[in-house]
Amino acid sequence: MINDPKLCAYQLLMYFTKSRKLTLSSEQLPGHLQLFTHKAIFEILTALLEYGFVFKVYSSKGSTVSYYLTHRGERLVGNIK
After folding, report:
1. To 10 degrees, the CA torsion angle through 27, 17, 2, 57?
2. Which of 33, 54, 62, 73 sits 20 to 30 Å CA-CA off 19?
3. pLDDT higher for 3 or 36?
4. What are the C-alpha distances in Å from 74 to residues 25, 29, 39?
5. Closest by Cα among 58, 2, 55 to 32
6. Which residue range is the domain that position 18 belongs to?
7. Short-list 10, 71, 68, CA closest to 44
8. In total, how many domains does the chain have?
9. Per the domain annotation, does 80 fall within a domain?
10. What is the pTM (predicted TM-score) of this model?
11. How many CB atoms lie within 10 A of CB 81?
């Protein structure tokens, strides 16, 4: 597993160029994100959350968490495209 925060951040932003929503569960990660450790993914998502690029929604059962791009996040991703 890869624990490189910069590469993980890049892959997460590339994921958000295709979808405004990222859903994570403890058992399953989307395809290319499976290469990274959970720690690396959550560190980057926490930073994106703190800076207002995404917001977090927990499922009613608590087994999954979804991250959605905010308008600020959409502008960030738009600059990458």
Report:
1. -40
2. 62
3. 36
4. 23, 22, 24
5. 2
6. 5-74
7. 10
8. 1
9. no
10. 0.84
11. 7
